[in-house]
Amino acid sequence: MRLTGKVAVISGGARGMGAVEARLFANEGAKVVIGDVLEAQGHSVATEIKTTGGEAVFVRLDVTNEADWQQAVATAVERFGKLDILVNNAGVSGSGRVEDVTLEEWNRVMTINSTGVFLGTKTAIPAMRQAGGGSIINISSQLGLVGTDNSSPQYQASKGSVRLLTKATAIQYASHGIRVNSVHPGPIETPMTAARRADPQTLQLILGRIPLGRYGKPEDVAYGVLYLASDESSFVTGSELVIDGGWTAQ
Fold first, then answer.
1. Residues sharing a CB contact under 8 Å with residue 232, sequence separation 6 or more, in sequence order
2. Counting C-beta atoms within 10 Å of the first and last residue's C-beta, which end of the chain has fewer, N or C?
3. For residue range 202-250, what is the model confidence (pLDDT) as tens digits?
4. Could you give the angle at the alpha carbon of 108 between the alpha carbons of 38 and 33, nearest 5°?
5. Strands 134-139, 178-185: pairing kind
6. What is the mean pLDDT of residues 140-149?
7. Residue 179: closest CA among 150, 131, 118, 137
């Protein structure tokens, strides 16, 4: 198994990509702390993992709350002895064009998608240093690399900031044995994209921009995250793993 003996915290782990990552990590031998504000769903994922022979625990985690992050990391260390892996997966989308977006909406998306990654990273580093190193995987987006006319400016800006925070952290903490990489999914079949996929016109517009002609599956992303979490990627830091069906190749 690829993560035997490792301990991971996954934010946004109650559903979508985060839940798939949690299950995959557990199947590969990791002990998993699932963090989310969706308590019932998060407990359900943790219970499922334990029922199938894995080790997992759920903690309520609002990624904008520093105390919640401290509790999540403390749970990993107290329950499983250390912290090796952090997946900053939690995020929200947005809508509107620049002149239509309120400051409140801008701040909401930036705080969850960007500040949340900063807080998770900041909180995890001391525990990873104590463990002798670790791997931080930040879930950005293909829209953290390129712009588009049919996504909100606050979402694109937040995901772009995750990309550069990843590189800054990777450089600053390489000597501590802490690797930091970003993952850039294209459109993926998750609850976040359900409304857009349900609209035929929007669906065809988006599919027309994906050379592979389909939405990705959460598993498509999870296996990339697994690679970055594992020792197989021991010489990879500060990099971008693009999983977008060819969107950014155009």
1. 2
2. C
3. 999 999 999 999 999 999 999 999 999 999 999 999 999 999 999 999 9
4. 35
5. parallel
6. 96
7. 137
Q: Nearest-CA neighbor of 89 among 24, 29, 44?
A: 24
Distance CA 182, CA 188 (A): 16
Strand partners, 216: 188
Residue type, position 111, single letter: T
b/e map 125-137, b = 16+ CB within 10 Å: bebbeebeebbbb
Q: Please report, in angstroms and rounded to a whole number, the separation of the first and last CA atoms in the chain.
A: 36
Nearest to 159 by CA among 94, 100, 210, 221: 94
pLDDT tens digit sequence for 61-116: 999 999 999 999 999 999 999 999 999 999 999 999 999 999 999 999 999 999 99
Contact call for residues 141 and 157 (beta carbons, < 8 A): no
Which are the catalytic amino acids? 155
**CA–CA separation, 217 vs 187, rounded Å?**
9
State the Cα–Cα distance between residues 9 and 50, nearest whole angstrom: 16
